[in-house]
Amino acid sequence: MHNTNGHKPPGGRIGDDTVIWVEGLAKEYRVYDKPEGLGASLRGLFRRTSRLVEALKGVSLTVNRGEFVALLGPNGAGKTTFLKLLSGIITPSRGTARVLGHVPWERADDFRRRFALVMGQRNQLWWDLPAAESFRLHKEIYRLDAARYERVRDELVDLLGVRKLILQPVRELSLGERMKLELVAALLHEPEVLFLDEPTIGLDVVAQHTIHEFLRHVQAERRTTVMLTTHYMKDVAALCERVMVITHGDILYDGSLAEIVDRFTTHKIVTLDLDEPPAPGALERYGFPCEIRGPQVVMRIDRSRIADVLPEILRGAGVRDVSVEDVPLEEIVAGLFRSGDARPAEPAEAPA
Amino acid sequence: MTTAAPTTAAGPGPLAELATRLRIWWTMLAICLEERLAYRGDFILGTAMRFLPIVTQVFLWTAVFAATSRADIAGYSKTDIVAYYLLTMVTRAFSSMPGLAGGISRSIRDGSIKKYLVQPVDYVSFLLAARIAHKLVYYAVAILPFAAVFWICRSYFPPLPDATAIAAFVASLLLSFLLGFFMEATLGMLGFWVLEVSSIVFAYMLVQYLLSGHMFPIDMLAGIPTGIAGIDVADVVRWLPFEYTAYFPAAVWLGKVQGAELGRALAIEAAWVVVMAVACRIVWWRGTRRYSAYGG
């Protein structure tokens, strides 16, 4: 279904359900080198050297209504640039895009009333005022019907359990509380598309969990199309059916979460609880024992062999317990990030 | 385009659209008012400090008049001078925009300007609402010290001017607010091109200080030749926007500008408001295009 090599446009057709359509989208930045030292800085006043950095190199994809997409990638991979392009904050160097039928960077009001972006802290809420006031302003600028606005607001604050906080100045709130209220502010106008840039960064486990539950509920209820960037695999596992891995401005993988495990792992992790520590070399014929801690052994076993090997191990004496798991998602994704690094990524040199 | 496009004929009628915009605007104003009220303490101290420079001005001019045998300088007696400086304080209370340019350029630098690109709201309208709120709160706090100072100094003022002059004074003050706003907002948006606008703002303040009448009444420049026959410095300054942000309203109150000259000056002031409002739009539009192309 989903295109998985990232280079070719995924059909390029716009269906009835297509919410985001992107074709060859590229963004280059000119960055100026700031040499070290005072002397070099002074010379830099007269002659600056600059480079073109390709933050995004011709990305193509389509996203249908109601999809929940995770953008993964190391820092500087182009994830945020991509979200900025789709929200119309920046214009591309090449390529084009439609979000809800609009070219985002034309910033038509009709488009802007139908999506939301949450990027960074101190985003939409007024710092010195209670969030309720920011919500009221949103009601006006998004031209919301009063009764509907109140119903949506009450539903959102109750889902996140923040009703008591909306009358407190935002500056007095914790990071997690602020993020929850940012999400409420972003969803008041019931956007059809929601872009989230690292919504759970720096939050504790409980707050992360609350936000997951909230997003899942809202998304299912409204069929909102959500695209989020994150570094936490917990976010991905909890929320997203579709995963895109971006490195060096390119889509390296685009497909389902299940498929990523399937395609990029060759083995499973098998943990054995034995009666006594195994004899040296006793387990090597089944697979690779990566950790032996007394009677507990963690092994990597080839996936193709697991069905044959496992009964054999269990038949052997002294196995008290066994568990078979997939390689952790973090590890798979980290591997993908590294495989992206192997690609040549030479920025074009150009004097200013 | 970031400015709100007028709704199409198929949408709600123009009156309903206007009503919606007014509501948006009113809410922005109300929220900005609330935010400013959180800082009222600053205002009280700031207002008191504003009266300090005028004391030194009075001392300076007392010394000037003591050193000359003339009863007036360029048509200003010693009491006129005191009245003039007090009146320019009123003008400046309308036209000065503390923190406006710096605030805009900061929001460009730290990226918080993004919000106004993403939300269906017009940034310039929003800034204007915020500034009106800022001024209203300031006047509410400052009116007492202002009234006290003017009452103490009442003997320096000529008798109350006629109704025309008072109306022209009020009009010139309101225009000076808009003029100051659009000039500083435009300067702040230069932050789209340069990292730090503070040096530009400083240069602007310097020119402003000299040519607005904040430092001395502009008509004192009359008779200073520019080198072009028949044109003196005051003639040039009259066509620039600066004197309308301090000198002009004060001069109207003191009856220095009357009749046809008054009408012409008000027209020049209004024209500058339009020019700067358009300039502000253009700079916003081009600036956001540049921002979108280079950074974000």
The overall pLDDT average of chain A reads 86
| Cα-atom radius of gyration of chain B | 21 Å
Strand tally of chain A is 14
- The helix/strand class of chain A is alpha/beta
Q: Point out poorly predicted stretches of chain A.
A: 1-11, 343-352
What is the topology, as strand order, of the major beta sheet of chain A?
5-6-7-3-8-9
Helix content of chain A: 25-40%
Low-pLDDT residue spans of chain B: 1-9
Strand-and-helix sequence of chain B, N→C? HHHEEHHHHHHHHH
Mean of residue pLDDT of chain B?
87
- Give a quick account of the main beta sheet of chain A: strands, pairing sense, barrel closure: 6 strands, mixed
Description:
The complex is a heterodimer of chains A (352) and B (296). With 352 residues, chain A is of the alpha/beta class. Chain A has helices spanning 38-44, 79-86, 109-112, 131-141, 146-160, 175-187, 205-222, 233-239, 257-264, 306-315, 329-341; strands at 18-32, 49-64, 68-72, 94-99, 115-119, 193-197, 225-229, 242-247, 250-256, 267-274, 288-293, 296-302, 319-326, 348-351. A six-stranded mixed sheet of chain A has the order 5-6-7-3-8-9, sandwiched between helices. In chain A, strands 4-1-2-14 form a four-stranded antiparallel sheet. Chain B is mostly helical and 296 residues long. In chain B, 69% of the residues lie in helices and 1% in strands. Chain B contains twelve helices and two strands. In chain B, a hairpin with a 2-residue loop joins strand 1 (72-73) and strand 2 (76-77). The two termini of chain B are 16 Å apart. Chains A and B meet through strand 5 and helix 4 of A and helix 1, helix 6 and helix 12 of B.
Q: Helix and strand layout, with pairings?
A:
The complex is a heterodimer of chains A (352) and B (296).
Chain A lengths: L17 E15 L5 H7 L4 E16 L3 E5 L6 H8 L7 E6 L9 H4 L2 E5 L11 H11 L4 H15 L14 H13 L5 E5 L7 H18 L2 E5 L3 H7 L2 E6 L2 E7 H8 L2 E8 L13 E6 L2 E7 L3 H10 L3 E8 L2 H13 L6 E4 L1
Parallel strand pairs in A: 3-7, 3-8, 5-6, 6-7
Antiparallel strand pairs in A: 1-2, 1-4, 2-14, 8-9, 10-12, 10-13, 11-12
Helix pairs in contact in A: 5-6
Chain B lengths: L13 H24 L2 H11 L1 H16 L4 E2 L2 E2 H18 L4 H10 L4 H5 L4 H30 L10 H27 L8 H14 L21 H7 L7 H7 L5 H36 L2
Antiparallel strand pairs in B: 1-2
Helix pairs in contact in B: 1-7, 2-7, 3-4, 4-7, 4-8, 4-11, 5-8, 8-11, 8-12
